[in-house]
Design goal:
It contains 13 helices and 19 strands. The chain is of the alpha/beta class. It has a domain of 218 residues: FAD/NAD(P)-binding domain, CATH 3.50.50. A hairpin with a 7-residue loop joins strand 9 and strand 10.
Length: 389
């Protein structure tokens, strides 16, 4: 088996895959169409499974040092009543770590730092070259072709490679929600590490960072394509009477810092994550709603499992068969759970279902809540066999 790979997409999943493949001795090139590799975004919560994947990739220590543990907080009503409290200490006791919050750009930088600069080819589009073979991609608009033993398509929810491999697949669909998010410009006086607040057809949440700033997000039940001339003004109007610190978070944010995206997902599961010498990874394979905070964690799991399979199996074909068998059932189960969590959260809008959900949440013991979280967080990565071992 050869040991060269082209990874299409320089997001968190693509970079994690590059780090993992290099750790097993592969030569890697990452092709990213964006001209600047900064993974623009707000914040991210890393659960134990994602942190364990990062440990196996060799960057877990650096990520933990840059992240803030989520020990307290939970879920509230717009008036501030607690529906469920977070017990980060109990979660840490169960799996060895609390959930940790970190700016997405910081995580992206730490993954980039683990790669030689020459690994990254930015500002270039990549497309499959079928006439040359399944392990080749055309880069840019010219005739530059990169051939490799493996192509990893980590090109996001709108993946061109997925469209080529599965032309009859319906692709991503809108789930009925849109999300606005940002990182505050300065530190905010917060009493909790993480919160979600569920109203009728709306959600507001925050993640506190190590430097005192915070990421906030607002999810609204709205048609795809809905946009606001002044997003902060619109959010102040919608959330002005919700509990503290929601107004303070909005006041600490610049208007030009607000990101606005519709929530889309691959509702129809793919029949395989690998075709020929092309492997799909991350959102290209299993884009899910953000309700469980597992999107990036699942992509990093993909990266570790792919590298481990390539290190252990005698051929690329055998490795990709193993990768698909290990990753597809788990990631698609997590995607289903995320979709269900959204239906029981912000997407509820009628008074009776909202009241029933709130009652169930208030009556659920904290130990039971921890057990539910562990279904997705308690994952052990395969060990990567490195040439230096």
């Amino acid at each position: 088996m050869g040991n060269t790979a082209v990874i299409v997409g320089g997001g968190i999943g693509g970079l994690a895959a590059a780090v993992g493949l290099r750790r097993i001795g592969w030569e890697v090139r990452v092709v990213e169409r964006a001209s600047v590799l900064d993974d623009a975004g707000a914040g991210i919560s890393l659960a134990a499974n994602g942190l364990r994947a990062l440990d196996e990739l060799g960057v877990g220590k650096a990520v933990r040092e840059a992240a803030r543990g989520q020990y307290n907080g939970g879920t509230r009503t717009p008036r501030g009543r607690w529906l469920a409290r977070m017990d980060g200490a109990a979660l840490e006791e169960a799996v060895g770590t609390p959930i940790m919050g970190i700016p997405r750009a910081t995580l992206h930088r730490l993954l980039r730092d683990a790669l030689p600069a020459e690994t990254l080819l930015i500002g270039a589009e990549a497309t499959p070259v079928q006439e040359t073979g399944p392990g080749a991609v055309r880069v840019g608009r010219g005739d530059m072709i990169l051939e490799a033993d493996l192509v990893v398509a980590a090109d996001g929810i709108g993946s061109r490679f997925r469209g080529r491999l599965f032309p009859s697949h319906p692709g991503p669909v809108h789930n009925g929600s849109t999300v606005l998010r940002a990182i505050t410009e300065q530190a905010v006086d917060l009493r909790t590490d993480f919160e979600l607040t569920w109203g009728r057809g709306a959600e507001f949440g925050h993640i506190a960072f190590l430097d005192g700033r915070a990421e906030w997000h607002a999810v609204l039940s709205l048609p795809a394509g809905t946009r606001f001339a002044d997003p902060l003004a619109e959010l102040r109007r919608r959330f002005h009477d919700w509990h503290d610190p929601i107004p303070a978070l909005l006041d600490a944010t610049r208007t030009d810092a607000v990101l606005h995206h519709d929530v889309n997902e691959l509702r129809t599961p793919l029949p395989s994550y690998a075709v020929g010498r092309i492997a799909l990874l991350g959102d290209a394979a299993h884009a899910m709603t953000p309700n469980l905070g597992q999107g990036a964690c699942q992509a990093m799991e993909d990266a570790v499992v792919l590298a481990a399979a390539l290190a252990a199996e005698p051929s690329v074909d055998a490795a990709l068969t193993r990768y698909d068998a290990e990753r597809r059932p788990r990631s698609q189960a997590v995607a289903r759970a995320a979709r269900q969590a959204g239906r029981m959260g912000q997407q509820l809008s009628r008074p009776l279902p909202v009241a029933l959900r709130n009652t169930v949440m208030r009556l659920t013991p904290s130990r039971a809540a921890v057990r539910m979280i562990l279904r997705h967080h308690d994952w052990a990565p395969p060990e990567l066999s490195r040439p230096d071992r």
